Amino acid sequence: MMNHAIPSHRRPLRYAIIGGGMSGLLAGIKLKERGEDDFTIFEKAEAIGGTWRDNRYPGVACDTSAHSYTFSFAPNPDWSSYFAPGGEIRQYFERLVSRYGIAPHLRLNTQVTACDWREDHWRVTTADGSSLDVDVVIAASGVLHHPNIPEIPGLDTFSGARFHSAQWDDGEPMEKRRIGVIGNGSTGVQLVSALAGTAAHLVHFQRTPQWIMPCTNRKFTEAEKQEFRTDPAKLEAARNDPAAVARRARFTAAIIDAQSPELLEIQEEAERNLDQSVRDPALRELLRPDYRAACKRLVFSEDYYQVVQQPNVTLAMGGIERIEPSGVRMADGTFHELDVIVLATGFKTNQFIRPTQVKGVDGRLLDDAWAPNPTAYYAVCVSGFPNFFMLNGPTGPVGNFSLTDIAERQWGYIDQLIDELRAGHCVAISPSPEAHAEYDRQREEASRETVFASGCKSWYLDAAGVPQIWPWSYAHFIEVMREPCLDDFVLRRSLTPA
Ligand code: NAP
What single DSSP character describes residue 84? Predict the structure, then answer.
């Protein structure tokens, strides 16, 4: 329950928001809505958009329904298709910047290098050496943000073009080239589907097969878009599409219980997709994973299995021995000559706000608090780091959910904690060490029951194999985000110790 019994005097707050991606913009818009203007959004790149700015590889799209991957307060009647292409999503966020007057708050090309807690406020330092004192830091720096460049021997010796999927080289022609795509997560699969049509030859390097779920990405007609523009109820219904809500409920029931009938259903659907789509039995077995569906993030594709059966596509399964100047040598000795190598090898997902150096109470480093794994109480705040809140931070629901919805719900929770500061009930608020530790204990216990822990490797797992993402239902997430339990928090009333 929120504490309204404490005497209060309202005080204006100063905010630093770190990251100009989806969730950083959300924080700015929400502060504006409240009439709070003293905030700066620090963005290290030259433009806003986060993931949707960095990932502009051919075929990039969001495999969550476009209408549910929008903010509840800013529905978009103009999505071109059920799954929106990445460029359209970036433009959606750019429109919000002008619609909500966020531009004057943006400091682009400005990397935050340090955040130091100074008893009752944060000093935020940027790479140009300047600093800003604020009351609240919102870390909205993303999860899938630091490209994972694999340590494959000889990678640097390749004489053709090579780049990570999130660092696309727009100047590099792809048509009629011999392309190798390393990695078959959601990115690799989208890339292969998009590039195979025009490549001279495409080799898809797969270390571990993936379960692929079927899906249909239908275009919205002009008549439908017109209806969405003129009928807000229709647009809202598309946002809360009952079929998508039911799929989410089935998915969440499946992932939190590896023995559930819902998981069996997903498993059967993925197996059926493989069995019905791939004609050649040898190829089919090559593509069959030996772990449960949804153990890794589920990949959705309309056409991947059809694409890999095209004559100009080769599947290279198993280990890569090394990369040589003209191509890739496999562990079995096979050699693939290539002009371009795309590394769809994922991200370093335990970085979050780092390498920014964050020092909390008594100079404690976030790096130390996060050893061996990044953690946050209910995924939003960290014991010993007052007035420091995270959107899409460690241990939250990620993967196949709509991250816009998650960020909005997290903001609703954070906003209530900030209310304690706004009201003057305290100058510093953070979860107690006991509450944070208990959250982690319960989370780890629950995570062992999830499908993520059922026997595969994925970016959801820490080095010890423990899933580092939300292990409970989505309904539980919605429930706990409704209102913080203030008993779990340490509120420092003033600078003078009591
Ligand atoms: P990912 O799921 O982490 O997949 C990385 C791929 O690279 C895996 O196939 C992995 O193989 C392979 N790999 C890594 N290191 C390798 C090495 N040294 N040698 C050979 N292969 C190597 O990365 P991602 O596909 O970029 O996706 C990351 C996340 O981004 C997704 O899980 C999803 O949350 C998000 N995403 C979402 C969408 C969407 O439509 N909403 C689209 C793209 C991405 P192993 O499996 O053997 O490790």
Answer: P
